[in-house]
Amino acid sequence: MPKKLRLIKLGDGKEQLSELDIQKTFEQNLSDFEPGLKLVTSFLQTNVGIIDTLALDEDNRPTVIEFKGPGASSQDALIQALDYTVWCRNNFSFVEKTIRKNLESLKKNQELVNDIRIIVAASDFDERTKRSAYGIEHEVKLVAYRLFERVDEVWILPIVEVDTAVGGRSTEVLAPKSKDDHFINRPREIVDLYEKFEKNVRQIGADVQVNYKTQSFIGIKNARRNFIGVNPKLNWIRLDLPLTPDEAKSSDYKWADSCGGWGYIHLTDKTYDESMRLVRLAYEKLGSQ
Asked: Is 172 within a domain?
């Protein structure tokens, strides 16, 4: 079940949510909506208009986010976002300067990637808009939201209807990935951390197998099924695990109840021992099912 974003209602005699209400709610919950997504700034002025929200994802890719209030045209929002994205790509020095100015946590030696993503949040998307998203060269995520009222509150339920990073942009059959493919443009320390991790995981059981061939993650399975999804990032390795918060009992573990009962932990040198504890729990859990 996707995670609901809580919006305190509605004050000053207001009876209907505005586009700004939707935007503020998403901005206050970006990391809940997408792990690692960080707010850079709101209402960024460009030469082609004002970007609702500029964010940075966990791979240091700028992300243009456009919002439409209930009933507004999602097609217009996608066209706007694409226009802004092309401008940002062609004026990347401005984008980079804006990000570094607003995100003090970004280290000076961390490179930003000129591979700009698009997120559009609207109350609904017609089929034509959904199909159009797959024809765009940039990665696109279309998020429909549902509103639920509870006494003096409104809850927003975001539902990802299109994600071209998952669905693919064409019918071309992609070649299976190799181990090295998953670590292209990743720092040496991330590669070394994974090598250590994989060696230790293989020692958990004789039935542990590693599959590098999938496109979006490295799968690690026991005799029955995957118990780890490995996602190498620039500053850490995200480990997706089939554990509930009650099973994990870890402040480092983040629950993603929109992902079929899986959560995740960021594997770093600091969290290594805790990550291995959770991996063993996941192995034991799925081995007994």
From this structure: no
